[in-house]
Structures are given as C-alpha cells and as structure tokens.
C-alpha cells in the first residue's frame, strides 16, 4: 500500500512543482496536460497540468491544475510534513519553503526536536521536523 498527497493548484502547478523540485532535488514525472484530453476547459488552459508527479529520494506526491470550474479553497485541513536528519538541512528547507509565503511557527527547537510550520507562496501548508 502507498498513500500519498495529491495537491491542487489554480493554473500554476508547473511553476510550483519546479519550485519543490529544486528544494527537494526531485523530478517532475508522468507530466500530462489538458491538451489532448476530451475535457471542457478553455483554450488558454490546455497547456496546464492535468496530472503530474514529483519524485525523488524520499519525495513522492502528485499534483494538478484544477479545471477553472473547480473551486479551490486554501484551507488548513492538510499539511505536507517533511522529516529531516539534520537541523541544518531542516532549517534550509524551511527557509526555502517559507520564502514568499507565511510563517505560522518559526523554525526552532521544541520539546521533541526542531520544528517550523508555514504556508508557501502557492498556499500549501508545510511542517518541517528534525527529531532530537
């Protein structure tokens, strides 16, 4: 069994996956656009991603650009969680993810280790952890 996240974007999925790919040293795989699909989307939306996967060592999630008639509500119901082995690497990842976004909990030492929580520039919620 494999359970993984599937993120929805408002037309900037390619940009977001490139951003995450740079941070996590991962590649965009299985990239499919709306171009050849029999789906009713505007012509200017045909090159948007209908499906893609970001894969790398320890990284695997899917994403797409929701069609314009599918509303996306930025909420706090789900967070992507990243667990790292070193405080330095965790702080570096947190800094990159939170750049241009909103920090909810500064990355700092907690009872269990180091932790920070933020929303990135695309509205995705992230928790970055490094155990003691």
Automatic annotation (TrEMBL):
According to the entry, every stretch annotated as the PhnB-like domain falls at 4-128
Pfam families documented for this protein: 3-dmu-9_3-mt
Entry protein name: 3-demethylubiquinone-9 3-methyltransferase
Q: What InterPro entries does the record point to?
A: Glyas_Bleomycin-R_OHBP_Dase, PhnB-like
């Amino acid at each position: 069994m494999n359970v993984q996240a599937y993120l929805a974007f408002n037309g900037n999925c390619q940009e977001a996956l490139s951003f995450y790919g740079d941070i996590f040293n991962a590649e965009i795989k299985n990239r499919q656009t709306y171009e050849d699909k029999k789906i009713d989307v505007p012509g200017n939306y045909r090159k948007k991603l209908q499906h893609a996967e970001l894969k790398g060592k320890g990284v695997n999630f899917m994403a797409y650009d929701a069609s314009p008639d599918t509303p996306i509500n930025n909420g706090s119901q789900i967070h992507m969680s990243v667990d790292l082995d070193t405080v330095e690497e965790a702080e570096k990842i947190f800094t990159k993810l939170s750049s241009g976004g909103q920090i909810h909990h500064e990355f700092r030492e907690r009872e269990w280790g180091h932790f920070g929580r933020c929303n990135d520039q695309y509205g995705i919620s992230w928790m970055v952890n490094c155990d003691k």
